[in-house]
Write a structure and sequence with these properties.
By secondary structure, this protein is mostly beta strands. The chain has one helix and 13 strands; from the N terminus they run E-E-E-E-E-E-E-E-H-E-E-E-E-E.
Length: 205
């Protein structure tokens, strides 16, 4: 007690989710996932949520997923945490992660992954052990284009080590590649059915 019953709908519907109350020694009494789900159109959905904890403060988050088949897809996660450290002090932390993939009509594609945070402290209350043990945040962007049988790609990368506060930046790089081809095509374009061993030697660059 108490209990509730809810009708099951086959289509998407805007509305509040069922919150999850509980208790533990660290947070005291808490209510997690006080959330409202909504969708903007056929391609975008969003969830706003609030977690309240008696001893350690509160956290608000925004999650959004979007997908349009054959064109683009992505995800956005934003978190803001007001963490209580003592009876008179609080600490504000934030986290942002955005992922985006898009395919263009000219046989090119774009991938972006942006990840930033105020400090590792925001992961202290996470149920995900991989997040609590993670020591780095990485942001990257890459663009690829198919030109006939070749691939041209460029990208940049940013990595921050949360333990020693060092940062590594890889400036935009460009690469050009061709699929492997038999080496005899360098000397002859004739197509014959010979199975000589040297016809299995190929090159690429």
């Amino acid at each position: 007690l108490p209990f509730g019953t809810f009708s099951i709908k086959t289509e998407r519907a805007r509305g509040f989710l069922v919150p999850e109350p509980g208790y533990n020694k660290v947070d005291g009494k808490y209510i997690e996932n006080i959330a409202f789900y909504s969708y903007i159109d056929d391609y975008v959905e969003a969830l706003t949520a609030l977690d309240w904890r008696e001893k350690t403060g509160w956290e608000a988050r925004l999650e959004s997923n979007y997908l349009r088949r054959y064109y683009y897809n992505g995800r956005l996660l934003a978190r803001f945490q007001n963490r209580t450290e003592t009876s008179s002090t609080t600490r504000k932390e934030w986290y942002l992660n955005a992922r985006h993939h898009q395919d263009f009509l000219d046989q090119s594609s774009l991938d972006a992954n942006l990840e930033f945070m105020s400090s590792k402290t925001i992961w202290q209350s996470s149920d995900n052990i991989d997040e609590r043990l993670n020591e780095t945040v990485t942001s990257s962007i890459a663009y690829r284009k198919q030109v006939f049988s070749t691939t041209v790609s460029s990208g940049a990368n940013y990595t921050e080590n949360l333990s020693d506060k060092t940062k590594q930046i890889v400036l935009p790089t460009v690469s050009f590649s061709l699929p492997s081809k038999p080496i005899y095509e360098l000397f002859s374009q004739k197509d014959n059915s010979s199975t000589a061993w040297w016809r299995n030697i190929s090159y690429s660059y």
